Structure formats: C-alpha cells, structure tokens
Amino acid sequence: MKNDTISLPDKTNQLKRDLFQLTKDINFKKSKKMGEILESALAFVVRNYKNKNPYNID
User: Fold this and answer.
1) Residue-range domain boundaries for the chain
2) Which residues contact 40 (CB under 8 A, 6 or more apart)?
3) pTM score
4) Which pLDDT does position 52 carry in this prediction?
5) Structural contact between residues 42 and 27, judged by C-beta atoms closer than 8 angstroms
6) Residue 38 class from Cβ within 10 Å (0-12 exposed, 13-18 middle, 19+ buried)?
7) For residue 23, what are the contacts with CB-CB under 8 A and spacing of at least 6?
8) One-letter-per-residue 3-state SS of the chain
C-alpha cells in the first residue's frame, strides 16, 4: 500500500497537512503517499494511546 498511488496528490497533500496541523507529528509532513500517511497515523495512535484505558474510573 505504501508503494501504490491510491489517491490524487492534492488530496494526499491536504490530508498530511491537516494531520500535521492537528497532531504536530512531523511524520505526517514527511509522508509522500497515502500508505505512508496511514502508517504514520497508526504509529501515532500506538505511541500516544497505548497505555490508556478509557474505561478506568480511578
């Protein structure tokens, strides 16, 4: 998926720009294709929410 062109370049650029503004994660800005954006998004979620339990009532 990282090697496939699955979206138009302007849409890919818009998504990576918007995700960078939202998260301030430089990996989004460095992404060149939609697959790389997805990989960056999954890494961001794992890195930032790995040990969070939303159901913990402490």
Assistant:
1) 7-38
2) 19, 25, 27, 28, 30, 31
3) 0.78
4) 65
5) no
6) middle
7) 44
8) CCCCCCCCHHHHHHHHHHHHHHHCCHHHHHCCCHHHHHHHHHHHHHHHHCCCCCCCCC
Nearest alpha-carbon partner for 48 in 57, 58, 40: 40
Q: What's residue 7's pLDDT?
A: 87
* pLDDT in single tens digits along all 58 residues of the chain: 788 888 899 999 999 999 999 999 999 999 999 999 999 999 999 898 876 666 766 5
Place of tokens 């040990």: 51
Q: How far apart are CA 48 and CA 50, in angstroms?
A: 6
